[in-house]
Amino acid sequence: MKKVYWRPKAVSRTGLVLIAFTALVGLIMVESVKVKRLQPHYEEKLAATELAAEAYDAISDARMRLGYEVDETMDLTLSGVLGVAMSDVTSLAGDVTAKRTAINPNFAAVTVQMLYDAGVEKGDVVAIGVSGSFPGINTCVYAAAETMGLEPIVIGSGAASQWGANLPDLLWLDMERILVEENLFKTRAIAASIGGFEDRGLGLSEAGLKAIDEGIKRNGLSKLKAESFEDAVEERMALYDKKAGGKPIKAYINVGAGTVSVGRTLGKTMFSPGLNLQPPDRIRQTDGIMPRFILRGVPVIHFAQIADIAEQNGLPVPPLTPPTPGDAAVFEAVDYSKLLAASVLGLLTLMLYGFVRSDIGLRLLKLSKAPKKDVTPEAMV
Question: Per its UniProt entry, which superkingdom is the organism in (predicted)?
Fold first, then answer.
């Protein structure tokens, strides 16, 4: 026997209005009532960020001991990490907004997230290339690597672009040594180059070249000796592989736009800021540390276009007050309340059934007493 059910011949306008009103109120409620959820690896991210903040303070203290005052008109958060406009060791022009944005300890948490997204785990070896241009990011990368218990292999350089670590007696190479002496980090570069154009300081004055040479010696580092771009790439890759001692290198982190690391003009346009998992198109048309690693299948984390990375992770561009560790989207995600959304959806489903598929809605509204239309239930087979 076929099942028989009943529904009204016409759907009540009052019922439709009630359904529409309920849907609108439900939408407003779902959009208004949101919940915060902790992102994965929250504790590690927070620990890395707090470590980076301590490192910033140590750099600022070292700067003050050397007699360098903080320029309040330029260093808006009084971090003590922002460099100066020009000095003997300044290699290239720099965007002060990007440099200010980079001085945010929450980039340590961003680095932790990208490393996990790259498949890096505790005990893994990672290769790192840094210059003096973004000491704020360098600090966060070191903090992330140490918090995650990684084995970082770092090659640095002495020169810096504007507003970076460009004080002749406080290069990035000095900063990382100070952070080790303060027992904040264990990570230090295994070797360093002059840096700047072609990684050989082309365009720097004799005084600048001398200051960087002295900085490399002062910090007890081996100086890279390559005299050409191609030799510089080979020299660095050989150092990374030798130091890894046969262990696989699970990621390469580049900070800045060093030509040897990123590649020449073509290479600089190929990689996206942040995590790169696949080789870009035409990658074989250029050379550099990043192209070499990604062709090996090694994920590359590229800290360039800092403002873009900051915006993607809910960081201010630039911060106008000292950033608070833990205050970033990478720590917490604002999401819809699934329970509320399910409740609204369930209520609408019941109302649609009551007014469209049965006469329950009509009975509740008592429309049968004064119908405007014939609403006598009809049999449906």
Answer: Bacteria
